[in-house]
Amino acid sequence: MADLNVLRNKIKAKTDALWILQKNRVKKFFRQFYADQHQLTSVTSADRYPELFEEAKKALKGLPSDEIKLLSFGCSTGEECFSLRKYFPQGFIVGADINKSNLKKASDKNTDPWIKFILSNDANLAAEGKYHAIFCLSVLCRWEDTKDVENCEAIYPFEKFEKTVSSLTNLLAPNGILVIYNSNFRFEDSEISSQFEIVSTPSVKNSGFVHKFDASNRKVHQQHKHCIYRKVTKVASAYAS
Ligand SMILES: C[S@@+](CC[C@H](N)C(=O)[O-])C[C@H]1O[C@@H](n2cnc3c(N)ncnc32)[C@H](O)[C@@H]1O
């Protein structure tokens, strides 16, 4: 009887391993069709990051409220934009997503003339002008695909993250902020981060639960704290040599 159990367990271990292998092959095959896409799922909810939204509001204090322009990059079905309106009662909010069906749901729900949903591509994003804040929340990652790996290169490489944060930087107004939460990488590891300063966010204890990787795609085991970065715009000095 004991022998039979050992055999049964061995067969089960083998079939489990084969199943995981097959599942990963299928996932890898489909990934090639989502080359422009970051996070694949569309999970969202109303007021999902209240502390972060409060900190972003604080970071933009001083700007005339009716002139504020915000971008929710990866807005899914719109809840993020509708929630942002609570923190920024005035101003223009743009929601961009790569998924057309999400955008349709978002637009169908929208009754705010100062919230607009657009398909995310370079031309459309740039056409809306410069933003005072760009929110990339639960977008710059592949979760849970990267949950159990020590190296994420084959799933979501650093260069993809870096390319996107660098193009988003070009869309920021002078002294604008980039808000990155639940990403697979630390913004500080990107080259473009040298143009930014970290904004202190005392009420937000870390940059999210999504596992972090370094610029070589290796898992980072330390906690990462920062999630708001301000683009530092140097004023040209009349006395500069
Ligand atoms: C998990 S949802 C996050 C929604 C919302 N930001 C939140 O945190 O509740 C990720 C969204 O990012 C979108 N997304 C993925 N790649 C994108 C890209 N390249 N441009 C714009 N949106 C993208 C997906 O379609 C999906 O709607």
Walk me through what this model shows.
There is one protein chain. The chain is an alpha/beta fold. The protein has two domains: 1-34; 36-231, Rossmann fold. Helix content is 32%, strand content 17%. It contains six helices and seven strands. It has helices spanning 2-31, 50-59, 79-87, 100-109, 122-127, 158-169; strands at 69-73, 92-97, 115-119, 131-137, 172-181, 196-198, 228-231. It has a seven-stranded mixed sheet, covered by helices on one side. Strand 2 (92-97), helix 4 and strand 3 (115-119) form a beta-alpha-beta unit. It is elongated, with a radius of gyration of 21 Å. The protein starts with a helix and ends in a 10-residue tail after the last strand. It binds S-adenosylmethionine. The site of S-adenosylmethionine (SAM) has 23 residues, from strand 2. This is Methyltransferase domain-containing protein.
What topology does this entry show?
Layout: H1 2-31, H2 50-59, E1 69-73, H3 79-87, E2 92-97, H4 100-109, E3 115-119, H5 122-127, E4 131-137, H6 158-169, E5 172-181, E6 196-198, E7 228-231
Parallel strand pairs: 1-2, 1-4, 2-3, 4-5
Antiparallel strand pairs: 5-7, 6-7
Residues 36-39, 41-44, 48, 73-76, 80, 96-99, 102, 120, 137-139 line the site of S-adenosylmethionine (SAM).
GO molecular function: methyltransferase activity
Organism: Chryseosolibacter histidini
Keywords: Methyltransferase, Transferase
